[in-house]
Amino acid sequence: MESASREDYLRAVYHLMEEKSEVRSVDLADYLNVTKPSVSEMLKELGNEGLIEHKKYSKVRLTGKGHKIAQKLTSKHRLIEKFLKDMLKIDTKKIHEEAHRLEHAFSDDSIGKLRKLLGNPKQDPHGKPIPRVS
């Protein structure tokens, strides 16, 4: 699971599941600003890797393995947003895209140290919970 694109899809499913109970491929296409055929291709790959459950024309669900990865990615993203906002004083409107670029580069060790530096925050700058992962 090295691909930034795969990570983006998993985090998108996780995010959309927080917003609503049901995630469809069209929701992912809209959220990620990609084509429906691109979504279909990636969902097939993620399904083959055992990270999601999805049948054509049905909702998308994370498997246990997929949920764990998506939760970790979301935690990483939101911690970086918190750091950018609180420590670097970057405008709230800009932190999401900046965090998105950085989330793929930070190691687990660095994220652990960042969490500690920030005092183990519970929420990101947008008020969303920062998942606690082991």
In round numbers, the mean pLDDT is 92
Strand content: under 5%
Count of separate DSSP helical elements: 6
Spatial extent as radius of gyration: 15 Å
Q: What distance lies between the first and last C-alpha atoms, to the nearest angstrom?
A: 18 Å
Model description:
With 134 residues, this protein is mostly helical. The protein is built from six helices and two strands, in the order H-H-H-E-E-H-H-H. It has a two-stranded antiparallel ribbon. Strand 1 and strand 2 form a beta hairpin. Helix 1 packs across helix 4. The radius of gyration is 15 Å and the shape is globular. The model has no long low-confidence stretch (mean pLDDT 92).
List the helices and strands and how they pair.
Elements: H1 4-19, H2 25-32, H3 36-48, E1 52-53, E2 61-62, H4 64-86, H5 92-103, H6 108-117
Antiparallel strand pairs: 1-2
Helix pairs in contact: 1-2, 1-4, 2-3, 4-5, 4-6
